[in-house]
Amino acid sequence: MKAELRTAFQTRQYMLSKDFEIYYYADVHLRPVPLHEHSYYEFYLFLEGEDAAIEIGDKRLPLTYGTIALIPPGVQHRSITSPLSDVPYRRFVFWVSTAFAQSLVQRSADYGYLMQQAAVTKNYLFPVSVGRFSLVLSKAIRLLTELHENRYGRESAVALCVDDLILSMNRCVYEENHEETDDAKDLFQNLVLYIDGHLDEDLSLETLSERFYVSRSHIAHTFSDTIGIPLHQYVLKKRLEAARSSILSGTPVTKAFQSFGFTDYSAFYRAFRKEYGQGPKEYARLYSAQAGKDS
Hints:
Largest sheet: 5 strands, antiparallel
Number of strands: 8
Low-confidence stretches: none
Strand order of the largest sheet: 1-7-2-5-8
């Protein structure tokens, strides 16, 4: 997340704009917020936070990554997180005025699915799959980016982004409620595809957590539960395989190991020897000799 898109937390509970406002917050040691209500709709996209929850009336509802919350006008609520935790409390907060929301629904009922669900069921939290949530986050980031940049067509782009974000949230929750998804499988496949295409880059848990908006522990469990080995071992094996193939195709060892995320030759040598039983140069010579015999 770009630092310039972040907003310092504010306790203001009223809108300055006529139609909407959106904020990205990442706070530590957040002071408790008292129960309050709004005259507008508040959408809440939760990313991270220790013991994070939303209190609505006398109910404390835990927040998990991938949760879209919608607090309608007049519903008393407050956000809660551990004030002593050093884990950032990260979330998007998106305010939409009732008049603007009604204008969207008049244009198409598709914009009102979430508002109808909250009003009828009194359910205010809507968990969705990681893939769908990532899509919604990308829409929120795009809107914030347009708001922070003074580019040609800014007003038109912002209007399109607002519509896109609201419609995407409604669509994702609707689809979540009408079909089954394998969340862990989707995340694992997306992680594997990303790793395979970025072997020369930083692939730490922290980096992948920021890239996929998923906690480090969630990614770690996804790998260990799916293939039985930790993420760092998987990344190491993929880098060694890529370096091995590159060396066997004629790339010098000194160049091949640097092309796939290894910064220290001695560490690369030890890992290669442990994986393939020989050092990279010896392995390449043996392969060449064997290929000559077979030709």
